[in-house]
Amino acid sequence: MDEKDVKILDVLKKNARLSVKSIARLTGIPVTTVHNRIKKMEKKGLIKGYTLSLDYTKLGKPIMAYILITVDYKLLKNMKKTQHQLAEELKKNDFVEEVDMVTGRNDIIVKVRVSDIQELSNFVTRDLRNINGIDKTETVIVLREV
Fold first, then answer.
1. What is the CATH number of the domain that holds 21?
2. 96: which strand partners?
3. Other beta carbons less than 10 A from residue 115's beta carbon
4. pLDDT of residue 28
5. Contact criterion met (CB below 8 Å) for 91 and 100
6. 37, exposed or middle or buried, with CB in 10 Å at 0-12, 13-18, 19+?
7. What is the count of structural domains for the chain?
C-alpha cells in the first residue's frame, strides 16, 4: 500500500458508492489507476465489501445498546462448548448486529438494535440471561451515535 491507495481508501470510507471517475477527481489520480488499484485491493482482501449506512429510526429500531457479557467458563466446559461457539450462537439473534470477543473484565460485547426499551428488556432478561454459559450481563444504552 502506498499514498495513492490510502487516498482512494479515504474517499471510499466516506462514500463507497462513488464512481471510479468521482474518486479519481477527488484524489487527483487517473481513472484507470483508481480502477486498477481498487480491483487489486479487492483481490488482496484489503477491501472486503461495501456497506450501507442505515437510518435505524426509519427502520423502526431507534434504540442501540451494547451488552457486556461475562462468560461462565466452568459451565461452558461442562457443556463441551467454547466461548467462540457461544458468540456464534448469540450472533444468530435478530436483534444482534455485532458480537465481539474482548479482553478485560468482560468476555463478549454484543451490539443490539431494538424498537424500544421494553424490547431491549425482554431480550436481555428473557433471552440472553437464559443462555447457558452466560454468567452476567451489563447493558449500556447509546444516547447518541456520532
1. 1.10.10.10
2. 112
3. 14
4. 97
5. no
6. buried
7. 2
pLDDT of 73 reads: 95
**Coil, strand, or helix at residue 38?**
helix
In which domain, by residue range, is 34 found?
3-43
User: pLDDT tens digit string along 38-91?
Assistant: 999 999 999 999 888 889 999 999 999 999 999 999 999 999 999 999 999 999
User: CA–CA distance from 17 to each of 63, 74, 115, 127 (Å)?
Assistant: 27, 47, 28, 37
Whether residue 114 contacts residue 67, with contact meaning beta carbons closer than 8 Å, is answered with no
Same domain, 24 and 67: no
In the prediction, which pLDDT does 111 show? 98
